[in-house]
């Protein structure tokens, strides 16, 4: 009958690879393979990507330095992101390849932030706010002798939770008005309801007066709008009132009317560009 392995012999057998390493010619200590310094991790960069009204992506680039003479498999990446001490985002990924011997490798980590979930989980966050965050990232590497090591690294940053700016039609300044041709300057006020500044970078719009669609247009003007302030933009327009009908021409010939406008605005922020839909209505005046 074959002899079974005794439980007492198992620890001795498990140490054989270590003993073999110690007996290798020219490698009299573990330090010859693994050195006195251990692996390290550091943040190489952080970027906000895919910014929209719904959310954004945080991309962290973590550089792992391996001073050992053997490669280190990356067993796991984990991250936790918090604001004001309240965690709102966690995640992990496995099987991230190998850090080469006596070398380094940069590992990208992406985390999607959904604004609706963020606002639900952190009561202090509202649309239009800038969120300051602290992120902790762990890189777990496997060593054949020292076991699994988790290399922690921390970073801080901020990102916006944008809200749509207000677009108001202040007045139409007529340059000419007849049934065959009309030209005017449309004076708009752009209001910034965010706690961060932006540049208005393009505006596409549909304008209706008195319930009649007057004109569709697009401008590429760039104007700065500071936080909590309004900036004015003047847009030349021209169209043919004859194509709108008699009722619409009577509205245009008056002193003012109701208006509605919808379209999209382009915003350039510190964190990148985004395009946002808008819709508004009210009453305006006409001037000559």
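Q: What amino acid sequence fits the structure above?
A:
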């Amino acid at each position: 009958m074959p002899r079974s392995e005794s439980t007492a012999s198992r620890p001795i057998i498990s140490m054989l690879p270590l003993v073999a390493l110690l007996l290798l010619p020219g490698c009299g200590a573990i330090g010859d393979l693994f050195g006195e310094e251990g692996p390290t991790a550091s943040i190489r960069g952080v970027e906000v990507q895919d910014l929209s009204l719904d959310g954004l992506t945080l991309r962290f680039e973590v550089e792992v330095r391996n001073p050992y003479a053997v490669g280190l498999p990356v067993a796991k990446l984990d991250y936790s992101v918090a604001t004001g001490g309240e965690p709102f985002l966690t995640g992990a990924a496995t099987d991230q390849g190998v850090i080469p011997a006596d070398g380094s490798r940069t590992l990208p980590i992406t985390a999607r932030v959904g604004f609706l979930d963020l606002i639900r989980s952190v009561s202090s966050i509202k649309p239009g706010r800038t969120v300051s965050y602290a992120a902790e990232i762990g890189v777990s590497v496997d060593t054949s002798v020292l076991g699994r090591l988790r290399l922690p690294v921390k970073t801080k940053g901020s990102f916006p939770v944008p809200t749509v700016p207000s677009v108001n039609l202040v007045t139409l300044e007529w340059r000419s008005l007849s049934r065959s041709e009309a030209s005017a300057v449309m004076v708009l006020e752009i209001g910034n309801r965010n706690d961060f500044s932006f540049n208005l970078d393009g505006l596409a719009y549909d304008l209706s007066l008195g319930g009649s669609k007057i004109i569709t247009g697009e401008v590429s003007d760039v104007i700065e709008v500071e936080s909590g302030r309004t900036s004015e933009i003047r847009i030349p327009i021209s169209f043919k009132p004859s194509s709108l009908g008699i009722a619409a021409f009577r509205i245009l010939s008056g002193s003012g009317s109701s208006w509605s406008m919808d379209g999209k605005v382009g915003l350039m922020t510190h964190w990148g560009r985004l395009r946002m839909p808008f819709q508004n209505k009210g009453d305006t005046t006409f001037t000559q």
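Q: And what stands out in the fold?
A: Confidence is low (pLDDT under 50) at residues 1-34.
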